């Protein structure tokens, strides 16, 4: 298991959809929590940032950034899709000169209005426009969907052939480059379409730090895959930094567990990257002089250590006993306090004593389990604990939930978990 989290910048080739790229990244990194920060048309190529693991919580902070593209603009032919994949709707034998194009481009810099193309992924009553267009239910772009976008920069790079030009565009989120190409043609008085599109930058992510899926697969074979990941705090370097040093233990714990603490920093009501004694904790916000962590991205150990859940031990399916590791199955606990699925070194409070323990939170995938259970194997405990109250104190996360190839592999790993938990408990105040 790779246990990766961060942002990976994919160099998407033409013909691959953004969802295909997400699927491939999920397979390479062996991680279910994967999502892109904004689609790139299947026919287009270039930079596609994809968030992995807890970095998916950063979507709203990455999606609104500036984009940069290089597009090939072709005059003399318009299509219904506004790119080279569509059906021709208009033609002209007029020749457009570079000087004429250069003179027209400044009209499209700044805040301009666009009508999203008919063949786009925009939703109308829950149905994507391109599906309505393909079924014949929609034959022209919807004027009521007109919206304002911003073009920060627009320049002619070079002429690549008769009526063919490369242009560079720097623009806001939501800009349709093919629509921009069509509109430039209309402004000049000659039908036009976009023949090719390359996204060269999305926010802070560029071609230089992008990888193809094939390159990532090769890096995985060499054991170098994690070096391609951009750490979560680096991915949001555009957000101001707040460094907290020398907080009292009480205030540090309050902050880590979601409570507010007094903060004299004057940057009110805006996201801040929060660091505690040099360690990245996540995103926070100051309101009325009080700082709270709004997106927790710190290490598991900070939030897990000392966390408690209490309930009663119930009879269950006795799978643990059959494996040689009998477990106390907890019920009646507050589900809101439950950590994420995985295996933890814990302390079990039972009958007035504390024992070192291993607690599994999950669905027992190796033995075909489906329901989420909280099962604690109490080390060095003998006796009948069914029906008795128990409190589980979490000390450290040992691993995620794994589906093993056999029960023998599972038993071997549980034994290792128990050894690790015993070692951790020996140095922990929670088992004193």
Q: What would you note in describing this structure?
A:
The chain is of the alpha+beta class and 432 residues long. It has 4 domains: 89 residues, Pseudouridine synthase (2-Layer Sandwich), CATH 3.30.2350; 136 residues, Pseudouridine synthase (2-Layer Sandwich); 60 residues, PUA domain (Archaeosine Trna-guanine Transglycosylase, Chain: A, domain 4, Roll); 129 residues, Beta Barrel (Elongation Factor Tu (Ef-tu), domain 3), CATH 2.40.30. Helix content is 21%, strand content 35%. Strands 1, 2, 3, 4, 7, 10, 11, 12 and 13 form a 9-stranded mixed beta sheet that branches. Strands 19-20-23-22-21-24 form a 6-stranded antiparallel barrel. Strand 16 and strand 17 form a beta hairpin.
State the main characteristics.
9-stranded mixed sheet, Pseudouridine synthase, 11 helices, alpha+beta, 6-stranded antiparallel barrel, 4 domains, 21% helix, Archaeosine Trna-guanine Transglycosylase, Chain: A, domain 4, 432 residues
Strand and helix layout:
Elements: E1 6-12, H1 18-29, E2 34-36, E3 45-52, H2 59-62, E4 67-75, E5 77-79, E6 88-91, H3 98-104, E7 110-114, E8 123-124, E9 127-128, H4 129-134, E10 147-161, E11 164-171, H5 177-188, E12 192-202, E13 205-206, H6 213-221, H7 232-235, E14 241-244, H8 249-256, E15 261-262, E16 272-276, E17 279-287, E18 290-296, H9 300-304, E19 308-314, H10 319-323, E20 328-331, E21 342-350, E22 353-362, E23 373-378, E24 389-399, H11 407-426
Parallel strand pairs: 3-12, 14-16
Antiparallel strand pairs: 1-3, 2-3, 4-11, 4-12, 5-6, 7-10, 8-9, 10-11, 12-13, 15-18, 16-17, 17-18, 19-20, 19-24, 20-23, 21-22, 21-24, 22-23
Helix pairs in contact: 1-6
């Amino acid at each position: 298991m790779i246990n990766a989290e961060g942002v990976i910048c994919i160099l998407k080739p033409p013909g691959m959809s953004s969802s295909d790229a997400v699927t491939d990244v999920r397979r390479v990194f062996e991680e279910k929590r994967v999502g892109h920060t904004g689609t790139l048309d299947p026919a287009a190529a270039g930079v596609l940032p994809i968030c992995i693991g807890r970095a998916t919580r950063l979507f709203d902070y990455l999606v609104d950034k500036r984009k940069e593209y290089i597009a090939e603009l072709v005059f003399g032919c318009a299509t219904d899709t506004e790119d080279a994949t569509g059906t021709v709707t208009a033609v002209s034998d007029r020749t457009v000169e570079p000087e004429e194009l250069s003179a027209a481009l400044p009209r499209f810099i700044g805040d301009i209005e666009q009508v999203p193309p008919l063949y786009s992924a925009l939703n109308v009553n829950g149905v994507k426009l391109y599906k309505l267009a393909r079924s014949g239910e929609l034959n022209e772009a919807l004027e009521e969907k007109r919206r304002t976008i911003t073009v920060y920069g627009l320049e002619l790079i070079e002429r690549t052939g008769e009526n063919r030009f490369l242009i560079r565009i720097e623009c806001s989120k939501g800009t349709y480059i093919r629509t921009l190409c069509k509109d430039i043609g209309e402004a000049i008085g000659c039908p036009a379409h976009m023949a090719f599109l390359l996204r060269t930058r999305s926010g802070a992510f560029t071609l230089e730090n992008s990888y193809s899926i094939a390159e990532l697969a090769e890096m995985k074979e060499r054991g170098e895959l994690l070096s391609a990941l951009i750490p979560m705090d680096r991915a949001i370097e555009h957000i101001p930094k707040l460094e907290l040093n020398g907080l009292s233990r009480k205030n540090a714990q309050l902050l880590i567990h979601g409570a507010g603490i007094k903060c004299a920093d004057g940057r009110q009501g805006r996201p801040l990257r929060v660091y505690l004694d040099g360690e990245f904790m996540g995103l926070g916000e100051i309101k009325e002089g009080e700082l709270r962590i709004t997106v927790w991205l710190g290490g598991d150990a900070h939030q897990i250590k000392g966390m408690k859940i209490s309930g009663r031990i119930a009879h269950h399916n006795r799978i643990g006993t059959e494996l040689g590791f009998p477990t106390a199955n907890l019920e009646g606990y507050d589900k809101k306090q439950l950590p994420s699925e995985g295996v933890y070194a814990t302390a079990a409070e039972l009958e007035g004593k504390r024992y070192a323990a291993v607690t599994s939170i999950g669905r027992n995938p190796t033995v075909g389990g489906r329901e989420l259970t909280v099962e604690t194997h109490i080390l060095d405990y003998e006796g009948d604990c069914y029906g008795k109250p128990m409190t589980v104190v979490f000390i450290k996360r040992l691993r995620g939930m794994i589906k093993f190839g056999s029960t023998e592999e599972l038993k071997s790993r549980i034994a290792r978990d128990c050894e690790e938990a015993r070692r951790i408990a020996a140095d922990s105040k929670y088992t004193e």
